[in-house]
Design brief:
Helix content: 55-70%
Structural class: alpha/beta
Distance between the termini: 89 Å
Oligomer: single chain
Bound molecules: adenosine-5'-diphosphate, magnesium ion
Strand order of the largest sheet: 2-3-4-1-5
């Protein structure tokens, strides 16, 4: 009789897509007996078992889909080393409200100050709160759009990059764009405008973007959409990559390097 009922419960759990409870049912029942759980407590533990497992699975899948270039976290960022990074703003951004509101984030600063680190850390935080994220570099993105265009599949590619709630475009500015590729990027920014968030990192100040796009009009139109609802993190400081070398006296501090004529 008990075995029959047990089989029936297992079957129902599978039909309800609660495989974790199905696996842990015996343990949950003995815990309930041992701790003298009320019916409500038992229900709470059963549901927690499944929702926690589903959340873990969702986060794991979200991290894979995002294609982050490595594991970087907010906890792993040394805010004392980089005092111009607005830690309060990053904490606010980490809540995910900017993604819910379709707002953008720009992280600007010289090489090595932690732009990619913070972009990945913020991206991971977004996956954890339940937003879909995709990480790409500007070079890879523009390459994919240009290839799609020549294959007659631009619309599909633009739709693909429009889908994630947060699209991270890393390293804009290392490469200059021809008019045609600049326009492809503009189309993407335009599609996502007020419908999805962008996080862009760049080593160039916003005022220098015109040069990067070899087309002031496209640059201005793109910036207009990007900046309309946006948060800007301006990071000014020394490269973390050179930190230890500087300590050893092998490299001059950024303040000295920047004084080149
Ligand atoms: P950027 O993208 O601005 O060129 P990165 O984010 O790639 O710089 O940083 C270079 C390296 O230094 C990475 O390994 C990164 O994790 C590390 N890093 C940079 N800034 C910090 C920091 N403040 N605390 C800890 N690690 C840092
Ligand atoms: Mg970088």
């Amino acid at each position: 009789m008990t075995q029959l009922m047990n089989d029936r419960v297992q079957e129902r759990l599978v039909r309800l897509r609660m495989p974790h409870v199905a696996l842990r049912l015996d343990a949950l029942l003995s815990d309930a007996a041992r701790h003298d759980w009320t019916f409500l407590e038992f229900m709470d533990h059963v549901l927690a078992e499944e929702t926690d497992a589903k959340q873990r699975k969702r986060v794991t899948m979200g991290m894979q889909i995002a294609h982050f270039p490595g594991v970087k976290t907010m906890d792993g960022f040394d805010f004392d080393f980089q005092p111009t990074v607005d830690a309060t703003l990053l904490r606010e951004l980490s809540t995910g409200r900017f993604v819910a509101n379709h707002e953008n984030v720009l992280m600007l600063g010289p090489p090595g100050v932690g732009k990619t680190h913070l972009a990945v850390a913020l991206g991971r935080a977004m996956v954890e709160v339940g937003h879909s994220v995709l990480f790409t570099t500007a070079t890879a993105l523009v390459g994919a759009l240009a290839k799609a265009e020549s294959n007659g599949q631009l619309a599909e590619k633009l739709a693909f990059y429009r889908k994630p709630k947060l699209l991270i475009i890393d390293e804009l500015g290392y490469l200059t764009f021809e008019k045609r590729t600049a326009h492809l990027l503009f189309q993407l920014v335009d599609r996502r405008y007020e419908s999805g968030s962008l996080l862009v990192t760049s080593n160039l100040a916003v005022t220098q973007w015109g040069r990067m796009f070899s087309d002031e009009v496209t640059a201005a139109a793109m910036l207009d959409r990007l900046l309309h609802h946006s948060y800007i993190l301006n990071i000014k400081g020394d490269s973390y990559r050179l930190k230890n070398k500087r300590k050893a006296g092998a490299v001059a501090p950024a303040s000295v390097l920047n004084q080149a004529p």
